[in-house]
Every structure is written in structure tokens, then in C-alpha cells.
User: What shape does this take?
Amino acid sequence: MTAVSTGVVPPAGSVSTTLVIEGLEISTVHVGDTRPLVTDVTVSVGSGEIVGLVGESGSGKSLTALACLGLLPHGVRVTKGSITLDGKTVTAASEQELRSLRGPKIGMIFQDPMTSLDPCFRIGRQMVEALTAHEQVSKDVARKRAIDFLGHVGVPEPAKRFDSFPHELSGGLRQRVTIATALLLDPHVLIADEPTTALDVTTQASILQLVHRLRDELHMSVLWISHDLAVVAQLADRVAVMYAGEIVETGDTQQIFAAPKHHYTRGLLDCATHRHRGEPFGFIDGSVPEPTEWATGCRFANRCSFADSACLQHPEVTGSQQSGVRCHHPRGGGATS
Ligand SMILES: Nc1ncnc2c1ncn2[C@@H]1O[C@H](COP(=O)(O)OP(=O)(O)OP(=O)(O)O)[C@@H](O)[C@H]1O
Ligand SMILES: [Mg+2]
Assistant: This one.
């Protein structure tokens, strides 16, 4: 694996950084009303690297992912910053250019496999169509490659499953099919938005193993989105934690787990640990504020027991390229920690 920073700022002169999100702001844009939903998001994913993007519901993870694919919902736009993929600026691409990036350059899997699979068509036909839309290959070659990929992602009896309808497969198998379909085009980057959340723990674990194996074999870069830090811990090389539309901490996975700097990350970790042990504790009081409720200072201050008057100012990210935190009183960083 080529270890590449996904720190607050991408490493200068890095040639192997594949996906670079820099100072990203996403807003709802209606006549006379522009309201930010995601602000100042900077994350990069290196070649062959798995980066976990974590945060509670409503923190802006999916919008960030959709912006990478040029798939933001109607009325929602990138209003600042940039996203580049292998040096190509996604945020300045035309619809036609975006279509050619999706699939071969950047693949996506969603939480619900039925979002990507059409229930009316056999999975094989859908895979073949995905491939022939982007590559000039015969149907026979496409069929063979699709069956190979089904086998590759652990679908048993792939030649038989090729002719199944989506509803004939279990949730875990359907998710493997969507992974195989995304991988068929050999994307440089795979963006996975909570793809295992709806699956049982055993299936989830086998899919995490699969993604790890595929990253090693295909040298694919992965942005893995989850609200569950425990899942990200099993998978990611690096972690970016989002809260209320912004990144509050980045670092390598071991460091984030051993010594989180942001009090929000600490809270998320406690939640994950308690849940793992089956204990009924471990939650962060309150909830992620809606964008209309963001404080002008630190957006986490009203849930943080370390907040003081300094937190009335909006904190900037401090730290190194490898690990950064957006907090006036980071843990391990002074008397208040
Ligand atoms: N089309 C839209 N128009 C207006 N606001 C939106 C739109 N889509 C999302 N939002 C708001 O943007 C914020 C971020 O949403 P997003 O879906 O990115 O969160 P998320 O971190 O993916 O949450 P979850 O874990 O629930 O999937 C939320 O406050 C949401 O209500
Ligand atoms: Mg989401």
C-alpha cells in the first residue's frame, strides 16, 4: 500500500493522492437564500488508502460524498472549495465529464443496495450494461468479467447468481453484487456510504474483510462513510470525524483511537465501546444541530463540558498534515483537557 496523508492539508507535491477535497462548502441555493450545509471540509485519500469519514446523523457525510460524484440533490451546490480526482477538478466538470468519471474513476456503493439495483432486471444484465456503457467490450466478455467479479467478492455459484433477480438474494449478497458492479469498472476510488449499516454483524464483518482484501489486491482508494467508529476502526488507515457540517478531527486510525483530541471524538469512541460491551451507557448528550442552529462559535460547545468563553469564537483547525483538530481546548493539549 502507498501510505499517503489524509491530513488536514494534502501533502505538498504528492503525486499519489487520488481524491482531494479542499475547503469544501456545500449550500442550499434558492432565490434570495443561500444557506451552508457543509463548510470547510478538507480531506484527501491516497492511492490504495482507506479513509473513514465518521459522524452522527446529519453531520454532512452523504452530501460530501455526493459532491465527489457531482450528484448533489436539486437546489444544493458546491459554493466554495474544490474536489479533484487524479488531478481532474470534479467541481468544475460538465455533466458529460462527470458521467465519464463515475464508474471508471469513481465508484459508489450506498446503504441500501436496492438504490443501485433495479428490481426488474436480472443482476447479470445490470452488471453487463454498467460495463458496456463505459467500455467497448462484447456482451460475452462483459458476462465473463461480471461472473468473475461476483466470484471475486464472494458470491457463491456466481454463474447461477448472474441470472438472479435482486429480490432472490439476501441483503448481504445484494450488497456484494453492488460492490462487484462498482468494481467491475476498476474505479480508482470507491466511495461507500454506510454500506453495511443495514446488514447483520457477521455479514458486515465479511464485507469489511472483503473491502480490505480488494484494496490490497486492486490497490483501490476507499472513502468509507459510517456513523460507527467501531466499524471504521476495523477498516480505515485514517479517520476524519465530521460534526455539524465540518471536519473536527483527522488522524491515523490508531492515533484517533488511542488518543482522540476532540471531545466529540472521545464521546463517539465511548459510544462505540459501550455498545460493543452491550452496556446501556455511552451517549453524547444532545444531538447534532441542524445547519440553521449552528452556533457562530464552536458548533459542539453546547454539548461539551470543556466549553468556555473562548469557544464563542469559531475554532480553526490546528495541527499537522497528519493529524489536525478543530478545538480551542483539545484533549492532551493543555490544562483544560
Ligand atoms: N436536499 C437537501 N436540502 C436541504 N438540506 C439538506 C438536503 N440534504 C441534506 N440536507 C441537510 O444537510 C445536513 C447534512 O445531511 P447529510 O445527509 O449529508 O448527513 P449525513 O451525515 O449523511 O447523515 P446520516 O448519517 O443520517 O446519513 C442535514 O442537516 C440535512 O438535513
Ligand atoms: Mg448519510
